[in-house]
């Protein structure tokens, strides 16, 4: 029975060593196994020819290498690829590959949906189901390589991984850390710590813990320069306000002179894109080794926001530049297949009743407007 077998994709090096030790095997089995799974893309123990036959049989009986199935692939005009991956109980998540001249970035999801309610993000509208397992996170990298027919041992097509897909990675701490360990392990994907980026909306206590267990690159979704606006756009700010968040960022980069925080800043027309906001941003981050990534807002139905104009974004950037802040404007990729930032949707069996609440609000507004009660919801 598949259910009772342990999925080896759930183990980083440490976990895998414990697994083999328990089997009475030598630690070098871990290296062999990591190489087979991640560098050669093998998911069948029978093909692992440097393991004894008895060992392969034993593994087949007690373990498995199970990755999420790809149920849909869409390729954008600009080469971006989006995959829909099937999980159990009708859930599905999305993973996006973004090819550029000098790199290939895979944007992976960390949760089914998202428990946070950032106002400008379409994943937030979907509600939340659960955390992804380590296997389901690293399985996205495995499945993407497989779909592109890449054997990582010989070819590195995915050179960067960003945890910027669906979900808040720091709210799925242990599984995300283990998956990132596998991404960076020399016997697995071997990516450098500067090429694995975790993006967070600002879960401060988890960010403080992260430094002790990982040294991946950090991106922080700032999006506003004062607490009033950030409380509205990124409601977790009510719990961990800007000052606390920035202190945690300072702490994260301390002691590594090469490390910088990337502050993500979504450009929302008339909301956070005024010259005064740019100046406030400069003041906020001036003593944190950092750069700013301006993200043109990607609209989705019912968001209520619009993207700032190209001129406004340019103006905003110029103010940052004059103040000596390094900034880039994120190129929107894969828009034609809804693969851009904030557009990932998947299929989320919402457990938060968020959609229901939204429907209720919509209906009550409708009733007030029409002064009549028509129909029932649900
Ligand atoms: N929860 C994490 C990672 C997922 S979102 C975080 O908040 O950082 C990845 C990035 O896309 C974040 O900076 C997020 O704010 C941004 N984003 C979300 N919706 C967007 C949209 N509609 N347009 C542009 N960027 C968006």
Characterization of this structure:
This protein has twelve helices and 14 strands. It starts with 5 loop residues before the first strand and ends in an 8-residue tail after the last helix. Residues 361-378 have low confidence and may be disordered. The protein folds into two domains: 6-64, DNA polymerase, domain 1; 69-347, TIM Barrel. With 378 residues, it is α/β, with parallel strands linked by helices. The relative contact order is 0.12.
Poorly predicted runs are: 361-378
Helix content: 25-40%
Query: What is the strand tally?
Result: 14
CATH architecture of the largest domain: Alpha-Beta Barrel
Number of helices: 12
Secondary-structure element order, N to C? EHHHEEEEEEHEHEHEHEHHEHEHEH
State the separation between the terminal residues, measured CA to CA.
Answer: 38 Å
Arrangement of strands in the largest sheet: 3-4-5-6-9-10-11-12-13-14
Ligand set: S-adenosyl-L-homocysteine
Gross morphology is globular
Judged by helices, strands and strand pairing, the structural class is alpha/beta
Query: For the residues shown, what is the average pLDDT?
Result: 91
Query: Which CATH class of the largest domain applies here?
Result: Alpha Beta
């Amino acid at each position: 029975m598949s259910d009772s077998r342990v999925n080896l994709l759930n183990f980083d090096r440490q976990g895998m060593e414990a697994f083999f030790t328990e089997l009475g095997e030598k630690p070098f089995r871990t290296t062999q196994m990591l190489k087979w799974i991640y560098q050669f893309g093998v998911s069948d123990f029978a093909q692992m020819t440097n393991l004894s036959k008895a060992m392969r049989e034993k593994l087949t009986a007690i373990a498995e290498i199970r990755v999420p199935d790809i149920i849909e692939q869409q390729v954008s005009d600009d080469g971006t690829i989006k995959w829909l991956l099937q999980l159990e109980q009708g859930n599905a998540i999305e993973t996006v590959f973004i090819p550029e001249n000098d790199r290939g970035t895979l944007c992976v999801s960390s949760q089914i949906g998202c428990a946070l309610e950032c106002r400008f993000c379409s994943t937030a509208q979907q509600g939340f189901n659960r955390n992804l397992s380590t296997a389901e996170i690293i399985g996205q990298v495995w499945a993407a390589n497989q779909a592109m027919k890449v054997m990582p041992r010989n070819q590195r097509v995915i050179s960067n991984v960003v945890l910027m897909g669906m979900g808040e990675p720091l709210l799925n701490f242990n599984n995300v850390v283990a998956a990132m360990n596998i991404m960076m392990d020399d016997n697995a994907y071997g990516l450098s710590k500067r090429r694995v980026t975790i993006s967070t909306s600002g879960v401060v206590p988890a960010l403080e813990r992260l430094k002790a267990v990982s040294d991946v690159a950090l991106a922080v979704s700032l999006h506003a320069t004062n607490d009033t606006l950030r409380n509205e756009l990124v409601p977790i700010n009510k719990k961990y306000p800007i000052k606390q968040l920035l202190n945690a960022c300072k702490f994260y980069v301390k002691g590594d002179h090469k490390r910088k925080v990337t502050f993500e800043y979504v450009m929302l027309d008339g909301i956070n894109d005024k010259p005064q906001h740019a100046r406030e941003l400069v003041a906020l981050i001036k003593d944190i080794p950092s750069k700013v990534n301006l993200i043109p807002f990607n609209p989705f139905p019912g968001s209520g926001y619009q993207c700032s104009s190209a001129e406004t974004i340019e103006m905003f950037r110029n103010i940052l530049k004059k103040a000596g802040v390094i900034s880039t404007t994120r190129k929107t990729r894969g828009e034609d297949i809804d693969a851009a930032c904030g557009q990932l949707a998947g299929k989320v069996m919402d457990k938060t009743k968020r959609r229901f609440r939204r429907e209720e609000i919509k209906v009550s507004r409708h009733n007030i407007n029409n002064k009549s009660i028509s129909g029932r919801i649900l």
